Amino acid sequence: MSAVPPATSDGAGGHEPSRPVPRVGRIGFVNCFPLYLHFEEELAARGVRAEVVTGHPAELNRRLIAGEIDVALPSSIEFARHADRLVLLPTISISSVGAVDSIQLFSKLPRRHITSIALTEQSATSVSLLKILCREWGIAPSFAPRRQLLADTLAHFDALLLIGDEALKVLRTEVYPCHYDLGEEWRAVTGLPMVYAVCAVRREFAAAWPDEAAAIEAALMASRDDCAAHPQETAAAAARLYDFSQEYLEGYFDRLKFGFVDSYRAGLLEFYRRAAAVGELELVPDLATREVSA
Question: H/E element holding 17?
């Protein structure tokens, strides 16, 4: 884990800590685009500069826990597994109320006949959610990491769990005869929103640099708010970088929820309880005690 930056002289015989350059993880999928489109300019307006590190969710989970970055949006299940090392920035999540599009179980068969599933290695929450749903569906398939190309996976498994941009692209091509949106399936089972990721900061960083942590949270939300106020411009900007149409992205961004209101917290706690019941989580964290102090 990286250490707090060393003290430097204040020029008057005393010492004060040098101001850090926070290392902020950015999920490279299109679903995070509204949080980061204006993030760096919003952060600069608050007098803070950051190093933005882009990766897929599993990679950023690992780097956050290892202390290689300071702030990220870890998979919600990974936050719970490491809640002793992390604290929440309490206004941000990546959630949906029903269908999310970018977390899909693609299958050659109706789900009651699925006996084997290949799993993405890019996300932990979606894997835990799938195992919860399989229990609700009354099936007990075998699971294995996906290591082949799509065509090879089709030949060796009944179904495949994909997330992010790859899920959106496979959904568009209609390669599989059956597909199940895990956000929609979760709501059908529980009636609750699904929280896929939370915004978390290393506990040591939050304690040493609370103003910087607050500025990062505020900058992310300001970017989100600006994008929500200009949906067509935001979708057009994303379409120039990702292989999706502006029209599709307008609808997709509208389905994604980036706040962390009480109903999302209720959905997250229910997810944690069910994850513990299927052996995916040892302890359910108390969210109220795992947040950066106001």
Answer: strand 15-17
User: What b-and-e string marks burial along 216-253, b requiring 16 or more CB atoms within 10 Å of the CB?
Assistant: bbbbbbbbbebbeeebeebbebbbeebebebebbbebb
* Predicted confidence (pLDDT) per residue in 43-63, tens digit: 999 999 999 999 988 899 999
pLDDT tens string 180-199:
999 999 999 999 999 999 99
Here the tokens at position 232 are: 């067509």
Task: Enter the pTM of the model.
Answer: 0.89
Distance set, CA 144 to CA 7, 78, 147, 151, 293 (Å): 48, 19, 9, 16, 40
All structural domains of the chain, each given as residue ranges with its CATH number in brackets, are: 14-96+194-289 (3.40.190.10), 103-190 (3.40.190.10)
Nearest Cα neighbor of 192 from 124, 265, 246 is 265
pLDDT greater than 90 at residue 4? no
